[in-house]
Amino acid sequence: MKVKELVVPGSPLGTAEEFVAGDNAYEHVDGSVRATSIGFKDLDEGNHEARVQRLTREVKPLERGSVVKCVASLIKEKMVMVEMLEASKDGEPRQILNSFATIPVFNASMRFVERLNDLFRVGDIIEAKVAEVTPYGIDLSTKEPEFGVIRGYCVKCRGPLQLFDQQLKCVACGNPETRKISTHYLLT
Ligand SMILES: [Zn+2]
C-alpha cells in the first residue's frame, strides 16, 4: 500500500513543468506547484495535476463521558443551569450543538446537598462530566473530585476567589466562601 504523504501550506508537490495546480494547490514563482492547505499530496499523473486532499476532521457531538467547561447561569433549588463553553472527550474536541445544560442536585456532589448555593454561584466556571444526553437536554455531573468549580468569584465584590489551605477566599476583600471545587481549581 502506498503511504500518503502529508503536506502543509507551502509544501512543494512537484514542478510546474510536470503539473498544473489543482485543488488546494498553486503555482509558485519559483516554478514549483505547492500546497495551500494541510492534507495529503495527490498527484494525478494522467491529467498532470497536483492536488491536496484536505484533511477533514469530523468533530463528534457531545456524549456521555465528555468533559465540559461551563459557566453557571442560574442556581435553582434542584438544579444548576449552565452554559457550556467547550467540550472534549479523551483530549479530542467535541461539538456543542446547544450550549445549555443542567447539573441536577443529585449529580452535584457525593455528599448530601442542602442548598446548591453552597456549591455553586452564578458566574462560576465549572468543569463537569456529561452524565446523560437526552432529547430534553444534557445532564452534567460534578460528583467526582476532579469536577466542580475551577474558577469562582466573590459574591460581595466579584473579585476572584483563591484557594488558601482548602478554603476559598476573595483576593480583593477577603470574604471566605464555599464551593464544590474541582481538584483542577485554578490557583491564580
Ligand atoms: Zn470580594
Structural class: mainly beta
* Chemical compounds bound to the protein: zinc ion
- What's the helical proportion of residues? under 10%
Average pLDDT, rounded to a whole number, is: 92
User: How many structural domains are formed by the residues?
Assistant: 2
Strand count: 17
Give a description of the structure:
- The structure is a single chain.
- This protein starts with 5 loop residues before the first strand and ends in an 11-residue tail after the last strand.
- Helices cover 0% and strands 44% of the residues.
- The protein has two domains: 6-54, OB fold (Dihydrolipoamide Acetyltransferase, E2P), CATH 2.40.50.100; 67-177, Nucleic acid-binding proteins (OB fold (Dihydrolipoamide Acetyltransferase, E2P)), CATH 2.40.50.
- It has 188 residues and is mainly β.
- Strands 8, 9, 10, 11, 12, 13 and 14 form a seven-stranded antiparallel β-sheet that branches. A four-stranded mixed β-sheet has the order 1-6-7-3, with no helix packed on it.
- It has strands at residues 6-7, 12-15, 20-21, 25-27, 32-35, 39-44, 49-54, 67-75, 79-89, 92-93, 100-104, 125-134, 137-141, 148-151, 161-164, 167-170, 176-177.
- The chain contains no helices and 17 strands.
- The model has no long low-confidence stretch (mean pLDDT 92).
- The structure holds zinc ion.
Q: What attributes does this structure have?
A:
188 residues, mainly beta, OB fold (Dihydrolipoamide Acetyltransferase, E2P), 0% helix, 44% strand, binds zinc ion, exosome, Exosome complex component Csl4, zinc
Brief characterization of the structure:
Helix content is 0%, strand content 44%.
